[in-house]
Design goal:
alpha/beta; globular; Rossmann fold
């Protein structure tokens, strides 16, 4: 059985765990370096990216997560998780993990009160997929090997860079598990 970790410092952890288990995998809440052992994949959920970075530093998880990536473990970042994965963040000198070859801009779709839900057509995944945007970032630009999977209002909102999947919105806040299933298939591909 595949073991998928969910960084459990902040954000929609339970919702990710529910979808992982619904799709027949073991979900591991990650709160310490020890929790990273024997994972087949890792999800970096939404939350507040600056707070998440402080917590990653406090619990000494930043370098162990980078080491996990160097071993070839697939990772999926949703909303703030996308910001953590990005190699560059508009307006910031340094990235957080700096793993995915994308440039990301924070809060691209407005503030909390501007949150919304739309249905997206997503390449390789399907049609009419619900997407919940809450203070969402977007991908400003992507490296030439990055696959653009979805856009909203001409902004890139879902992309894949090899074993890294980055998403502007919150698929875990819906009942639709197709994006999680896509990530789990990525994990199988690399394990």
């Amino acid at each position: 059985m595949l073991k998928i970790g969910v960084l459990a410092l902040q954000g929609a952890v339970r919702e990710h765990i529910r979808q992982i288990e619904e799709l027949g995998c073991e979900a591991i809440p990650v709160k310490s370096v020890e929790d990273l052992n024997e994972l087949n994949g890792l999800i970096l959920p939404g939350g507040e990216s600056t707070t998440m970075r402080k917590l990653l530093d406090r619990y000494n998880l930043l370098e162990p997560i980078r080491a996990l990536a160097a071993k070839g473990i697939p990772m999926f970042g949703t909303c703030a998780g996308l910001i953590l994965l990005a190699k560059e963040i508009v307006g910031y000198k340094m990235p957080h993990l700096g793993l995915m070859d994308v440039v990301v801009e924070r809060n691209s779709f407005g503030r909390q009160v501007d949150s919304f839900e739309v249905e997206l057509s997503i390449r390789e995944i399907g049609e009419d997929i619900p997407a919940v945007f809450i203070r969402a970032p977007h991908i400003v630009s992507a490296g030439e090997k990055v696959e653009i999977l979805a856009k909203h209002e001409e902004r890139i909102v879902l992309a894949r860079d090899g074993r890294f999947l980055g998403c502007s919105f919150h698929p875990e806040l819906t009942e639709d598990t197709r994006i999680m299933k896509y990530f789990i298939e990525m994990v199988r591909e690399y394990n």
